[in-house]
Fold each of these.
Amino acid sequence: MAERKIEQIVERVISEVMESHVPKLRADITRRVLEEVKPQLGGEGENKAGPNHLLKAVSAIHSATTQRDVLRGLLDNAVRYCGRAALFVVKGGMAGGWQGRAFANNEAIKDFALDTNSALVARVLDGHTALSGNASEMDKRFLAEFRAPADGKCILLPLLLREKVAALVYADAGHDRGGQLDASALELLVLTTGTWLEVASLRKTAPKEGASGGPEKKEAPAAHPFPAHAAPSFSDPFAPHAPAFAKAAPAATAVHAEPEPAPSEAASDQFAGLPPEEADVHRKAQRFARLLIDEIKLYNQAKMAEGRKNRDLYDRLKEDIDKSRSTYAKRYGNTVAASGDYFNQELVRSLAEDDATLLGSNFKR
């Protein structure tokens, strides 16, 4: 009981500190993102997709006050770097249209059921990574209804939340010859959107997770988590969206299927055998480690690429890694989750792509 009370106090204090630092955090993220992308954009500062416009795009996403507005900001700014863009919600094994930009009929994107077995979609869902390819690899029904782009190329990007694909962003150069499709800028916008949604969610849910259950009641959390198997406290920006095709689908695959996890998901829960309160601490520690590593990845794209190439990631990112490890240790180093070593696990898994040798000889667990 004493440990749980301490955890509640810590979470409350963290929430208060985060609230007071959000404006600075937003400014720091924007500044760091711009620093990383300027060298890669080279001399493009004069054109539409130059660094100044990219800075404004990232700032617009971070200044949104609701999760839905963050996602609208992503699409509104994505079309600065492509001809057309659309976002599809991934739930219950389905990908349903949410909103589109610059299509002849944006409304038709809504409720369109994307074939998740089509080649490009399946590879992105399986690999959790953005892929450029021929439009012919996309859903044939999608191409028939919205027409293939003039150059025959497209990109599909996963919007990741807590390591799960919560949505897919489709982009192409449109029907005009010479239309643009800036894959690097689009990847950056999708990455920063996912990270900002997680930061916003952490701020929003921290007081609820640390609440003592007193008479004062806050806004109820969303009934269905953002991906289906994330923590229940995660607020779902797509919760009000129930596509027509999903309403007619069987309950087992509908977007608003019952919130209980499937048997396979329950069986794969590595903490299922622990007492509920102890398992909850492990899950929170694991999620916090992932968020810290995601922040390192967001701010250090160039260093990360060089570090993987030269197998010296730790040397190049030592300051950020050590600072984040210290932050993690202060929060979970003296809890039951300390034995899990989740920070180092995530460092190897995500930053080093499951190859610890990429961190270099100076990295010590």
Amino acid sequence: MIEARLRLPRQDFLLDVALTLPSHGITALFGHSGCGKTTVLRALAGLEHAAGRVVVDDAVWQDDASGRFVPTHRRPIGYVIQDAALFPHLDVRSNLDYGRRRAADASDPIALDAVIDLLGIGHLQTRRPGMLSGGERQRVAIARALATGARLLLMDEPLAALDAARKAEILPYLERLHRELVVPIVYVTHAMDEVARLADHLVLMRDGRVEAAGPLGDLLTRTDLPLVQLEDAGVVITAEVAEHDAVHHMTRLIHRGSSLWVGHSSAQTGQPVRARILARDVSVTRQPPAETSILNVLPVSLESVQREPSTALLSLRVGHGTPRDPWTLLARITSRSLDALKLQPGDTLHAQIKGVALMRGS
């Protein structure tokens, strides 16, 4: 595990957090600008000396009680920021070699050639940073960070400076790192689409404190958290590819006994994939719909209703009665529809899912 207790006064807030994070996968630190996300990252790196303790697996990087503080250059970390910060006078290979020289004392160095292949930068080796696109520069920066023999990769809004096209270019490579590398990643962002696509574990921060932390799927469905107020509120599921419809270019997924049709996926039958269902794409009906163009209709029970000024957020348990493996959907409907249908917790309904966005292979 990654454990951190950090306390540091800042100009606008007091950072006061206690974190226990998994030492695998991607943990996203999410919250509005200025809530302390980057300060946590810098404290983990040793760039800020917050009072407290930092332990990564069995290595104590900081323990103020015993006077221990490992400086940044002695911590086996990789650090990636918005600006790729590559050496402009060196070509890509020389930038990577600089990182690899830092790994000379690493107990378990990462195979650089494998990282180069994962990030698709083999053909860029002789180019200088000025000849690269923004997405290419960030991929090289990530490779250099990993080349140091990092046991922990820290990423501070690495996509924030990229336009939509470059962001779409780099996301699949981050997904490949997630699947194929065992190095844990702590990823700072205020973009929910990045969280939904990449994160396994989520830390929701507000004014220097942890508002909630846990598995991504659990936090996204908690109606007591501000995440559900976001325009792109919804749920993320890990499903299995059941079949492909070659005629209509669609793929059927199975998630906890529920069947969902999505756009065609290249994933093989039986492979796990990640999908996202936005609350605004879910509607409800009391009667099973007939002759509808909506392909995904699921029986649900209404668990709770959260009224908003002009809309209402519904928490829906998929499956009538007591299914063996229940899961939760969110639906955002108008308050007028809520009153017209006279919806109450406990009602049995049908959820119509207009869209299911296939995010990535899990």
Amino acid sequence: MNSYEAAQNARKAAIQLAAIDSNKKNEALKAIAAALEENKYEIEKANTVDLENSQKEQVAMPLLKRLKFDEVKIKDVVQGIQSLIGLEDPVGKVQIKTELDTDLILTRVASPIGVIGVIFESRPDALIQISTLCLKSGNAVLLKGGSEAKETNKILYQIIKNATEKVGIPEGWIALMETRQDVNDILKMDKLIDLLIPRGSNEFVSYIMKNSNIPVMGHADGICHTYVDQEADCDLAVKVVTDSKVQYVAVCNALETLLVHKDIAPVFLPKLKASLDEHKVILKGCAQTRKIISVQKADETDWETEYLDYILSVKVVDSLQEAIDHINKYGSGHTDCIVTKNEEKANAFMMLVDSGNVFHNVSTRFSDGFRYGFGAEVGVSTAKIHARGPVGIEGLLIYKYRVSGNGHIVADYATGKKHFTHKRIISF
């Protein structure tokens, strides 16, 4: 089956999927979770092939870490599916209800987007998260993973496809694309695909946006910052910054640039360096940083870099405003944090930093759909469209307006025979 046929089938399936009740969708999600556990050894075997091939091709270490899909990862994605099952089904939920006039009722109802095309990087767990979220939200999905995860993606796709079709989910609701030509084909299918979600480099996301008429939602780099204010608790700041950087370095919500107020830097930076030295983190600092601790020199390029590795750039700043300005200039709009005991400063930071996720005294690693209670995420949107931040179920929904009456006609209102009441019954 070629990509065009797959998209046509997905369009047909999406129409049926939008009307499937919550119990049936949850039954399908349970079937996926069970099938993943039943086939975990086959999944690990396929993943081993991908890892070995990638090592031969000398794929970068951060990508290898993302590619690994072992029993622990399987347990994590199953847990995510269980969480998703427990969430309320938002499809069909009335968001707004207004009486336009007696017996003339307007409602706005949450509905699936339709067919979603997702082009993602080497993480096989992303395939499961994306497909299960699309299923719960009533959307069909076309998936294109990286070639480095080819074997793992194939077996995961087949498991999900078989498990869901056995319980009555429409055939064709999910399809896996495998070639570069498929990507080019997908970009031209604006009559069949309603939304594209690319997950990759800045260059890749920009390419998708420039070469398709399909609406695009996604993010590229995750250049995340933490600002340690002069009124921060030093020990708390060390803990938060260390976790943000080293808990898992090869992800978009890991810390890449640290900003430190000049008044706390002489005390804080030596403590932080001792903590990060235990994890062999390479520090690169500005001139003021290098006067306090021994680190490599940072330049303009470092402020613009997503390392996805055990490297952290550090800059000493004179004020909260300088920190905010730096973040808004060099950040990617992903996740940024302030560490301070001053609530007023924290509120100012979270109001003025132009990012989808703004934190106070917590690790940037909390920026995640599962940790937010969304069940999982299809990605993190740094755009300013209908969805921003981790995109869970609600980010995969749009709405439609329904108007019900009893022979109402516009002529009666045009002539003044009748008048609108516009009485709000339910507000979103």
Amino acid sequence: MLNAFFGLFSHDIAIDLGTANTLVYVKGKGIMVREPSVVARHKRSKHILAVGAEAKRMLGKTPQTIEAIRPLKDGVISDFDATSAMIHHYILMVHEPRKRSILPKIPRPRVIIGIPSGVTEVERRAVEEAAMLAGAREAHLIEEPMAAAIGTGLPVEESSGNFICDIGGGTTEIAIVSLGGVVVNKSLRVAGDEMDEAIISFLRLKHSLLIGEKTAEEVKIAIGSAFPTEKTERQTVVRGRSVESGLPRSLRLSESEVREAIAPVIQEIVDALADTIEEAPPELMGDIIEYGIVLAGGGALIRGIDQLIATELKMPVWVADDPLTAVVRGAGKLLDDPALLKKVKVSGRR
């Protein structure tokens, strides 16, 4: 009865709690929040100063009294208080001020959160606790590859095999889904963040140039590629600090150099896909060969990654429509389908 009362004043929401970005889907309204998973706070008092894009602009620029942190590492919570504060901030953001003012404990939404498939029971409980502390009246957890499969429109409840690969910021989630469940899955803690680190290491070792994570991410987005797709090679100017002199320095970086830098990371993902195929039941192999692999997540936007995987594994590879939002759209669909939610959720708390 109390939950129904709180439901009158709250929007049910779905959250893709990602290492790099957090997306929030509101029932009946669509995706209302797309923000970096970054929190800025005072070091001593732990008072939250900024969340999301505003906090991300502070990365690497804060004075000693302020810290700008990413509260999730490799898809799991590394800072519980900051994660809870971030979820609470987004819950308040998607509710109208007039609804927030009715009662002090409102909003109290029902929340569905996507989590990596490889997390431990302790890590699952941490996500549930963070959501409940942030104000949720119910918290349901769903594995990210299942959410991505639902979000991309794959027939997850049918007996056919559906192969999904979600390349996020902290983890790469690989799964074969059939009959509303995960048949085979791998959670690889190698993804977009490792590509950024590879670019940083490449520039330091080959060009003696020091850059930060934010710059590396910008380079990856601007000219990152996994497979040579065009005759004209893209280039970008990178600014950092010289290792030898310690002074500012600019460098023109080519697409082929970035491809060389991130190649080992992408190869790890390809190897994990191959291992997953080897573990798949023989009865599902026909479906997998016929329908191929669907790519989701921000990593799916790297130019030519679908062609590289298709060439390596000798099977069709498709990039989902709007791959960045696949997980949150899938979790959002479950808000309207309690029967499917009951079938696919890994845990829930009221």
